[in-house]
Amino acid sequence: MRPKLYAFVDNFPAPRKTRVKWLRVCCDVHYRRAMHAAFAAGRGMAGAQPILDEWNREDGLLQDEEHWLYSDWLLDQARKLKVPTPLQHEPKSSTLSPNWVITDITNIPILSAKGVVKIREDIRIEQRWRMEKRAHWFSFVATVAAPVIGIIGALTGLIAVLNKSHGGG
Question: Sign of torsion, CA 11 17 21 27?
């Protein structure tokens, strides 16, 4: 028995990541209340076990969704930076590569811990390389701009002194 707000929150026009967070809160509140009601009614752990099983199933579905969203976000980052992403299947084979796993409940492929580490490392290397490339230009511009700013300051001071010596103020 899903919470009454589940369908509303799941179809709400918000980003999927936000809706999954809201669904987690909604389910946790609902099942905590159901567990409390079961214990208050004197059913004990035997009466609360079906509620706990259902809660674990819903939690597993939400965890799978969160892992999928994170994998999708990492892959998007890698694609934007033109970083190679790990292949889902071994070449010329239908077996899953070690960088991917199948989720337990929804049976969708997501990045494994090894795959996440590999992509994050590749993204970091690419971002560092791009930053170093821009840093070179910054040092060049700073080297050229410092004397120009100094000359402008000296001319401003000279104009002020000349203006004062000629009775300008």
Answer: positive
What does 128-161 look like in DSSP terms, one character per residue?
Answer: HHHHHHHHHHHHHHHHHHHHHHHHHHHHHHHHHH
- Cβ atoms within 10 Å, residue 63: 16
Classify residue 89 by its DSSP letter: B
Q: What is the dihedral of CA 80, 72, 14, 7, to 10 degrees?
A: 160
- Stretch 81-109: mean pLDDT: 89
| Among candidate residues 8, 97, 105, the one with its CA nearest the CA of residue 66 | 105
**Do the Cβ atoms of 60 and 104 come closer than 8 Å?**
yes
The percentage of the chain sitting over the pLDDT mark of 70, rounded to a whole number, equals 98
User: What pLDDT, on a 0 to 100 scale, did the predictor assign at position 32?
Assistant: 92
Average pLDDT rounded to a whole number, residues 139-153: 86
Per the listing, tokens 């026009």 go with 13
Show the tokens assigned to 74: 């990492």
| pLDDT > 80? residue 95 | yes
Rounded CA separation 14/96 (Å): 33
3-class state of residue 96 by DSSP? strand
